[in-house]
Amino acid sequence: MRFTKMQGIGNDYVYVDCFQQPIPGDPAALARRIADRHFGVGGDGLILICPSNVAAARMQMFNADGSESEMCGNGIRCVAKYVYDHGISRERRLKIETRAGVLSLDLEVGGGSANGGVVQRVRVDMGEPILEPARIPTTLAGERIVNASLPLLAREPKPKWFADAGLDPRITCLSMGNPHAVFYCRAVHKVPLAEIGPAIEHDAAFPKRINVHFVAVRSPGEVTMRTWERGSGITLACGTGASAVCVAGVLAGRSDRKILAHLPGGDLELEWGRDNHVAMTGAAVEVFSGEFAE
Question: Which domains does the chain carry?
């Protein structure tokens, strides 16, 4: 099976062009094997680039644990790059179909290759945030989950790292096609992400599990964040998560509608527009291609 390894600010996936070869029979099992960083290709998961009746391509995404996800913001930028660079579509404004709906993307093309350049960065219309608790989904009470109490983090006594990180244990939740929980603190590097991330992801308040983000606000227009990604663990970046942080910052009174987000793998530009859509702009990079023996 031919594959291409791509990454968007360190959020790396193995991509399979299903225009040129059959869709794998058991993509969940394949994701677990191929994403293994010791015995496979290595990555945060598997993304299939498939034909679509309503868009230039359809993106089907599987996390490293084999679970299927609705969307990936960094992943979809790489899908758009692949679609353009490999000639599936040469339009610089693309639509890509996902489980979270059909998204629109604008491509920034540069370089001096023979085909007129390759995609460097992609701006994605991430759509409208979902704020209704039942649709996120979460069982936490309220019309909106903004600066709310999460019983898991309300317990006493508090662990020492709460003070070390300057954690505000209140939670803000929303969906960007997949569920997100956002917390604020002074020092994101002092949060024991490998310990608290899975505990929140699997908390009973989140029936479909949840992505977890810890955010330090540098200024109203600039934040630093770290992510525990549902089904993948600690990742260098999360595009839907950065979009969720942009929205959560406004709802919680922490940051502006337009922010620069610093993630361990690089930077993303976010804006929650007056039309209620979130725009995300960032890099997309093709790393290498090869064959995987199924």
Answer: 2-127+281-291 (3.10.310.10), 133-276 (3.10.310.10)
Q: How many CA atoms lie within 13 A of 282 on its CB side?
A: 36
CA separation, residue 223 to residues 187, 237, 271, 281 (Å): 11, 13, 13, 15
Q: Taking a C-beta distance cutoff of 8 angstroms, is the pair 271, 279 a contact?
A: yes
| Pairing status of strand 222-229 against strand 211-219 | antiparallel
Q: CB of 3 within 8 A of CB of 281? A: no
Q: Of 231, 191, 182, 192, nearest to 209 (Cα)?
A: 231
Is the pLDDT reported for residue 35 higher than 60? yes
Compute φ and ψ for 105, nearest 5 degrees.
-135, 140
Angle between the N-to-C axes of helices 239-251 and 73-85, in degrees from 0 to 180, rounded to the nearest 10: 130
Angstrom distance (rounded) from CA 31 to CA 29: 5
CB 260 within 8 A of CB 6: no
For 31, phi then psi, to 5°, come to: -60, -45
Model pTM score: 0.92
DSSP string computed for 24-70: PS-HHHHHHHHT-TTTSS--SEEEEEE--SSSSEEEEEEETTS-EES
Give me the active site residues, please: 72, 238
Residues 204-229: what's their mean pLDDT? 98
Residues 161-179: what's their mean pLDDT? 97
CB 91 within 8 A of CB 258: no
